[in-house]
Amino acid sequence: MSWSTLTAASKARVLGLLLSCVLVITSLTVLSVKGLNFGLDFTGGYITEINTASVTTITDLKAKLSPEVASKLTISKAGEYHFVLREAPEVSKASTWQAELNEQGVDYTVLSSSFLGSQVGDELFEQGCLALFAALIAIMVYLAVRFEWRLSVGSVVALLHDLILVLGLFSLLGLEFNLTVLASLLAIIGYSLNDSIIVGDRVRELLRIQPDNQRINTHVVINDAIGSTLTRTLITSGTTLATIACIWLLAGAALTGFAIALFVGIVVGTFSSICIAATLPQLLGLSSENYTQTLDDKTKAYMELP
């Protein structure tokens, strides 16, 4: 396969693969330099729920606090007058935010106050990573059974690409990485895999039905497979993104990280299913012969039956 023999669509897919490589290297570099901004779910800290008499928005509540104190709090809204305040473990329990609210004349009631130890956070992080690892292993086994190894490798690489880009974005922007974001990574795994399997199944079907004794161009078959599934992929992704956008805009700060991770994951997942899951097998030498030989062996076995 030479560059001059590729169609415009095939060249676009190869360039997309190169772009993905650059983005993955950039994400890994950012992760190694900045790391992730782990939330209190993993680091531990104080969690206090309050109910106010007049303050109804997070912005209004932060306005009652000094910038220094507000920067040390993670505030989410649980109801019209109900707020959840999270503080880092190194902050004293007799936090100054209470004194400042009292000075501003804010009428509030502490509903509950608890401390999440770092040991609990470590256990949550360990269990979450184990769940992520188990999901990846199960998917790899499934792909190894379902597809020819080149298509399996393409799907696995696309999956890792999606996860790395999402983590790299969270590291670059300094967004809080908590349990809801970890849950979104598990959802991204399933969604990305679905896109890759749809394209991979179509590629396999087209390679199997090619006329005998005719050598076909694999990149043309892959372009046809993508073209036949693209409309369904875009409609599915579009409707899902619309739902996630509503969560992002309307569900409040508690689910912002979850919505951002899932939104980005679906966008890059759709991209990777075309530029990685379908293109990498082509570069690894996928052809109709990989399936023709298997079919001939089965046919021969059936013919030898008494």
Automatic annotation (TrEMBL):
It is a multi-pass membrane protein. The lineage of its organism: Bacteria, Pseudomonadati, Pseudomonadota, Gammaproteobacteria, Alteromonadales. Part of the Sec protein translocase complex. Interacts with the SecYEG preprotein conducting channel. SecDF uses the proton motive force (PMF) to complete protein translocation after the ATP-dependent function of SecA. Residues 99-281 form the Protein export membrane protein SecD/SecF C-terminal domain. Forms a complex with SecD. Part of the essential Sec protein translocation apparatus which comprises SecA, SecYEG and auxiliary proteins SecDF-YajC and YidC. It is found in: Cell membrane. Its main location: membrane. The keyword Cell membrane applies. This is Protein-export membrane protein SecF. It holds the Pfam family Sec_GG. The gene is secF. HAMAP family: SecF_B. Belongs to the SecD/SecF family. SecF subfamily.
